[in-house]
Amino acid sequence: MTAANPQFLKFIDDNQDAFIKRLGEAVAIPSVSGDPAHRPDVHRMAEWLSEKLQSLGVKVESRPLGKQMLEGQELDLPPALLGELGNDPNKKTVLIYGHFDVQPASMSDGWLYPPFELTVDPKGTGKLFGRGSSDDKGPILGWVNVIEAHVKLGLEMPVNLKMCFEGMEESGSEGLDELISEEKDKFFKGVDCVCISDNYWLNTSTPCLTYGLRGIAYFKISVSGPARDLHSGVFGATVHEPMTDLVLLMSKLVTPEGQILVPGLMDLVEPLTEEERARYEAINATVKDFDDAVGAAITFSDDKVQTLMGRMRYPSLSLHGIEGAFYGAGCKTVIPAAVHGKFSIRLVPNLTLAGVTKLVCDYVNAEFAKIKTKSKMTVEMVHGGEPWVADPNHYNYRAAHKATEYVYGKAPDYTREGGSIPVTLSFADALGVNVLLLPMGRGDDGAHSTNEKLDTDNFIRGSKLLGTYLYELAASKE
Prior knowledge:
Elements: H1 6-14, H2 16-27, H3 39-55, E1 59-63, E2 67-70, E3 73-76, E4 80-85, E5 93-99, E6 119-120, E7 127-129, H4 137-153, E8 160-166, H5 176-183, E9 193-196, E10 208-213, E11 215-224, E12 230-231, H6 232-235, H7 242-250, H8 274-282, H9 287-294, H10 304-312, E13 316-323, E14 334-335, E15 338-347, H11 353-371, E16 376-385, E17 388-389, H12 395-408, E18 413-417, H13 422-431, E19 434-437, E20 453-455, H14 456-475
Parallel strand pairs: 5-8, 5-9, 9-19, 10-18
Antiparallel strand pairs: 1-4, 2-3, 4-8, 6-7, 7-20, 10-17, 11-15, 11-16, 12-14, 13-15
C-alpha cells in the first residue's frame, strides 16, 4: 500500500507522451553554462522553466546572481529560480533543488544523434537520448509532472513545496552559496527537509537513496629550475631537472595499491560500524559491475564490500597529470624549465579541507627537502569542497524508502557517492536540515558523456516516485 493518491499515479501513466514532448522542448535549449556563446540559451532556459512553473500556479521569483568574467567577457550569471507552492502551516515543507544548465556536446564528440534533439531510441529500448535528459532536466521535469498532475486533477498537494533551480551547476554554481546564505532566514525559512534529484543508481536495476558524498581537495605541485627549457644533449647530467624532482615527489603520495602515504590522513577516518557495513553488504552490486564499468578486471579487491567502501566511504588520492611536460607524437629531447603536478584527494567525514591541506603541504615540503635538489618547489590546494553525510534513518529517508518500495517493488540500496555535489552541503549547513539524494536515472545514463540518455521507464516511474515520496513524507512521523 501507499499513501499516494491513485488518481495521481494514473495521470502520470496517461500523460507519458506529453511529458516526453516537454522534455524534448527542454533538451532543445542548449543551456551550456560554461560556453559564453550559449549563455543567452541558459537565460532562455530559465525563462522557459519559469513560465512552465507559473502556468501551474507556482509563485516564481527570478533572482539575479550578479556577473562573472569568462574567457575575457563579462557575463550576467543566469538567475536562480525560487519557487513556492503552498504555505499551509499544518503541512511539512520540502525544498527541492535541480539545475537546468548542461555540459557541452557536439556530434563530433561521438554522439549517435544530435545532442540537443531528444531522440527516442529507434531500436525500441525506450532510451531518450539528449544532453541534459538525465542531468538534470529530466528530474526537474519530473517535479513539474507531479505538480501538473495535482493541478489538473484538482488534488491538494500533500506538502508545501519550495524550489531552488539554478543554471550554473555545471560551472561551479557561482553565486548560489551567497544566495542560500542571504535567504536562509527568509525564503528558505521553515523548510523541514531537502530533496535533490541530481545523481544516479549504482547500477541499471536497483534504485537507491544516497546519504553521503565525498568532498575533494585538488592540489598543484610546482617545481622550477632553469630560466628556460634546455636541450638534454647539452645539459643532461649537469643540472637538476624539475621533471625528475617532480616525478620522485609525486611517487611519495600514493602506492600502486591506492594506499595514501600522507602521514596522519587515514587516522582521521571514522571507524566502520557494523550497521554501516551491513548497508554495504545489502547493496545489489558485484565486483564484476565495477570491472564492466571500467572495461577491465583491475579492481584492487575481489571483495564486493571492500570495493564499495573504496568508492564510497574511504578517501582516495589520484594523480591527474603533469603540466609543462612534453607530450604528443615525436621524440622531443627537452628538459622542461618548470612543471606542475596535479593530484586530488577525495574527502570523507572528519577530513576537512583545512586539515588535509596542512597535512599534505607539510608532508610534500618535508619530502622535497629530502631530495637535496637546487630546484624550487611550491605546493598549494587549488580548489575543494567538504564531504557530506546525512542520517539515513531520518523520516525524510524513511519516506523515500517506502515510496521506492511501492513504485519499484523492491527496497532501495543505501549508497554514498564517490563524487561531489557541493550544493548538498551548502543546504545542509545553512538550513540545518536533513538532505536526501533521490535519483531518477540509472548508472549507465552517461551524464557528462557522449550519448547521455534517460530511460522512458525511469522518467515515468521516476515521476511517480517523486510524487509518492511527497505523500509518504506527509504521512511520516518525525
